Automatic annotation (TrEMBL), chain A:
PANTHER family: DIPEPTIDE TRANSPORT SYSTEM PERMEASE PROTEIN DPPB-RELATED (PTHR43163:SF6). The chain crosses the membrane at residues 7-25, 101-126, 138-163, 191-212, 248-275, 295-318. Residues 102-314 form the ABC transmembrane type-1 domain. One of its GO terms (biological process) is transmembrane transport. Belongs to the binding-protein-dependent transport system permease family. This is ABC transporter permease. GO terms for cellular component: plasma membrane.
Automatic annotation (TrEMBL), chain B:
It comes from the Bacteria. Its main location: membrane. Residues 1-22 form the signal peptide. Belongs to the bacterial solute-binding protein 5 family. This is ABC transporter substrate-binding protein. It comes from Nocardioides iriomotensis. Pfam families: SBP_bac_5.
Length: 331, 561
């Protein structure tokens, strides 16, 4: 039980640190959101109107009170789930803005992450099972090669071939201009069409880490004494590989997977920017370039909480899956 | 990689893709026939604002986040078009200064809100008092000048000012008029999104919204309905990056767009020379700012010498691809503001590039060169300074390269620094620079055009952010002229003050205008004609309402737009 208590304590402490940093970092950033907004609206070819900057500054409001009272207020608002009004989407609240974007990211990235994990782990296990065979070389070399290609290059290539030249799929966006977002079959099929290319780009690069990790772990496990003993006892190869080797080799990947799921929120900036996908990653980028502090703060907070919770769950899971961990920590 | 750099990389890769593509896709030239009642069925416009994932917001006072369709919902008393600043009577039929502190507008009869209620002078008075009570909605700051706004008589509104109010005329006409019967029911107008059936007097109403596409449709009861020939306008979300958008533009998917396109002739006009056109009217004055608190920039002789030191033509042709014009040293935007030029001015105040004259003038002013050609200050030390330019503004960087070369030819040691735009703006505000580009002017508010860069009350000591006078120009004569201009209601008084300020720009050189920033505007005459352009500049490209009222179905009048 001590293991789980310690993990919980660690979780709470990191959470507090993350929340506090999240409060401090935007306040240390240089620049004035009102100025940024007006410059962006005006463009660089026309004169910025200082009166507009002033009006927007007053509209958005500046935090008052000492840093300590601000911090206290911030914690209070946080507990109530109140993140304030977004600067970019004023007067919509941060919660509304994030709520609209979250589903897109969670579905797109969630599904592709799970698929990547499954595909990657299976391929990796297969390569290890048939190690040094042709299958192994194709999988290992192939994934290493694809892994060296920049992600955005693959994504742009997909857009160029499938969206622009062949025109099979739309070039970007989460849905078309004509369809109304809602729970209709028409909208779903439209959204699915739009998700194919981004999902494909994620699925090309996604499994690589899992493949290589799984293969290497498993090759190592299959070289262990117990595997040799099992072989000597005459257990079938397949059983040694799947029931013994794979079960142990998958452990580090489980942690990795939990973290990958947790970082869904922050890890999609690239794919969403390229495909103009209406998700959290693009929102994050936009909030940073607009100095939209309330939105930025909430997104960073969700990302850190996501990673922390995922880590926590992985830790707990690890304790259950691998009794050795519990015992070592207790000792 | 920073997000911007990353985008730049994307752009680079995608340009190759789109250029290859531009060669192999045909242009659609099917034109939508007008409807039976002679209307243009639909026009496709560019972006509608509201960020990357727009939400419905038609509150005309929330200037940073409202969707651009709001401009078609609410109207102003007079429209002062942005190209040559002509006043077009709109919700008001006219105005009169009864004395220099009292301005009376005559409100138009027969205008209705789109919910069927009558529009009255009470609505106008209500609107102004609304932004008085909610001062964050007063984005132009009209209430710094106003004392009271009242509905008077049957159809008049009387504005009284605290002091002579000539310079506030522009601002008053910038305020969108909203219906009292709707807005008086709103709890908090500062956080009102006005998303549901917005009530305005404008020519269009909201038809449908989705974050990627916003459609507005003709208001059949509009007060100028006879001249309103557009049935529907579809705005399309323009995603960042722009390469795909360029492709859409060259494919003819937009009837009008306002975006930067490299080599517009090739990527757009040549695709359909009969219909595709562009008009890049001048915007603000892009000017070399010198830090006037530093030597040698505090010396008027020195600054005057530099006005002939720059190769303006090369900046215009090479850095700006010939899309813009050289700026007049007066700070006025020519040709739109040519009526304001002081009399007897040579070449509209556009300075010639004459390095020899600059060299001579510098030497005469006491800035000699040594044997190696280095330019020395009056104490005999080499003059060296930096030129800051945001690294992301590629055309600005190219322009600064040329200017720096010109300066180096005169023997100055000049370093180029390329900070991030936010840092650049901050440095310019706080005076942390030697030489830098600044932008001002080009609006119809002549007082603002000159007060922003030159008013001594709009500056601050180096280290503190200046409101807008970033060169830190302090001159009693300038301030006196600005004070005259601020209160002038009479045209000849305004002329006189502006001419005086333009002369100060010529003689004392508070900054050196180089070129006019361009307002990007592309249009197609496939479906509609009557767009404003160089031959018929009845309004600026961002004067949406006058433009809409000029549009006619393409079949009516041939292809010249």
């Amino acid at each position: 039980m001590g293991y789980f208590l310690r993990r919980t304590g660690f979780f709470v402490a990191t959470l507090w640190a993350a929340v506090t940093l999240n409060f401090l970092i935007p306040r240390l950033q240089p620049g004035d959101p009102a100025e940024a907004i007006v410059s962006r609206l005006t463009g660089k070819s026309e004169a910025v109107d200082p009166r507009q900057v002033e009006a927007i500054r007053r509209l958005l409001g500046t935090p008052d009170g000492s840093l300590l009272t601000q911090y206290w207020d911030y914690l209070g608002e946080l507990v109530h789930g109140n993140f304030g009004l977004s600067y970019t989407y004023f007067p919509y609240t941060v919660t509304e803005v994030i709520g609209d974007a979250a589903l897109w990211t969670v579905v797109l990235v969630g599904v592709t992450q799970i698929l990547s994990f499954v595909i990657g782990t299976l391929l990796g296990a297969w390569a290890a099972y048939r190690r040094n065979s042709r299958v192994d070389s194709v999988i290992t070399l192939g994934s290493t090669f694809v892994g060296t290609l920049p992600f955005f290059w693959i994504a742009l290539l997909l857009i160029y071939v499938f969206a622009i030249t062949l025109q099979w799929f739309p070039d970007g966006g989460g849905y078309g201009g004509g369809s109304t977002p809602g729970w209709s079959w028409l909208f779903f099929s439209d959204a699915f069409q739009h998700s194919v290319l981004p999902a494909l780009s994620l699925l090309i690069t996604g499994p690589i880490g899992w493949i290589i990790g799984m293969r290497n772990n498993m090759v190592q496990e299959l070289g262990q004494d117990y595997a040799r003993l099992a072989r000597a006892k005459g257990l079938p190869q397949r059983r040694i590989a799947l029931t013994y080797g794979a079960r142990i080799a998958i452990l580090p990947n489980v942690t990795g997977f939990a973290i990958a799921l947790g970082s869904i929120l922050g890890g999609t900036v690239l794919v969403e920017t390229i495909f103009n996908y209406p998700g959290l990653g693009r929102l994050l980028l936009e909030s940073v370039s607009n100095k939209d502090f309330p939105l930025m703060q909430a997104l960073f907070l969700f990302t850190t909480i996501g990673v922390l919770v995922a880590n926590f769950v992985a830790d707990l899971l690890y304790g259950v899956l691998d009794p050795r961990v519990r015992r070592t920590e207790a000792a | 990689m920073t997000p911007r750099r990353f985008r730049a990389a994307l752009v680079a890769v995608a340009t190759t893709a789109s250029l290859t593509l531009a060669g192999c896709t045909g242009t659609e030239s099917t034109s939508a026939a007008p409807t039976e009642d002679g209307l243009i069925p639909v026009l496709n416009y560019g972006d509608f604002g509201g960020g990357e994932m727009p939400k419905e917001n038609y509150n005309p006072f929330l200037l940073a986040t409202k969707l651009s369709a709001t401009e078609y919902l609410y109207e102003r008393l007079m429209i002062v078009e942005t190209y040559s600043c002509q006043e077009i009577p709109w919700l008001a039929t006219g105005y009169d200064w009864t004395d220099d502190k009292t301005l009376v507008f005559d409100i138009r009869d027969g205008v209705k809100w789109n919910d069927g209620e009558d529009f009255t002078n009470e609505d106008v008075a209500y609107t102004f008092n609304l932004i008085k009570e909610n001062d964050v909605l007063d984005t132009a700051g009209v209430w710094q000048y106003l004392d009271a706004v009242e509905a008077t008589g049957d159809s008049q509104v009387t504005f009284t000012f605290k002091e002579p109010g000539g310079s506030a005329f522009q601002m008053i006409n910038g305020v969108p008029i909203v219906p009292e019967h709707v807005w008086s029911q709103v709890d908090d107008p500062t956080t009102f999104t006005n998303a549901k059936d917005p009530v305005g007097t404008g020519p269009m109403t909201i038809k449908s919204f989705n974050p990627r596409e916003l459609t507005i449709e003709r208001n059949p009861d509009y007060w100028q309905a006879d001249d309103l020939k557009v049935k529907e306008i579809k705005f399309h979300k323009v995603d960042s990056g722009g390469q795909v958008e360029q492709l859409k533009l060259s494919r003819g998917e937009y009837d009008t767009q306002g975006m930067y396109v490299p080599d517009i002739e090739k990527t757009y006009v040549e695709r359909d020379p009969e219909h595709n056109h562009y008009w890049y009217a001048p915007g603000g004055v892009i000017s070399v700012y010198m830090n006037l608190t530093e030597k040698p920039f505090d010396d008027v002789e020195f600054r005057r010498a530099l006005t002939t030191a720059f190769n303006y033509d090369e900046v215009v042709e090479k850095a700006q691809l010939g899309y813009v014009e050289q700026a007049s040293q007066t700070g006025l935007v020519i040709p739109g503001q040519e009526d304001w030029l002081p009399e007897g001015l040579e070449n509209e105040g556009k300075m010639p590039y004459d390095a020899e004259a600059a060299d001579q003038a510098l030497t005469d002013a006491g800035y000699k060169t040594d044997a190696d050609g280095n330019r020395l200050d009056k104490d005999g030390n080499p003059i060296s300074f930096s030129f800051k330019v945001p690294g992301e503004y590629l055309d600005w960087v190219a322009a600064s390269d040329i200017l720096i070369e010109n300066l180096q030819d005169l023997g100055f040691e000049v370093d180029q620094e390329t900070p991030q735009p936010a840092t650049h703006d901050e440095d310019r505000k706080t005076g942390n620079y030697d030489m830098i580009f600044g932008v001002y002017g080009g609006t119809c508010d002549m007082y603002r055009n000159f007060a922003d860069p030159l008013d001594s009350s709009r500056t601050a000591p180096v280290g503190k952010p200046a409101l807008s006078n970033e060169t830190r120009w302090q001159d009693p004569e300038t301030d006196a002229l600005l004070a005259d201009l601020k209160v002038a209601t009479d045209e000849s008084e305004q002329q006189e003050a502006v001419a005086g300020l333009a002369e100060i720009m010529m003689d004392e050189v508070p900054n050196i205008p180089i070129w006019y920033g361009a307002k990007w505007f592309q249009y197609s005459t496939k479906n509609a004609v009557g767009w404003p352009n160089e031959d018929d500049p009845y309004a600026g490209s961002n004067d949406f309402l006058p433009m809409l009222m000029h549009l006619r179905p393409a079949e009516d009048s041939g292809d010249e737009g």
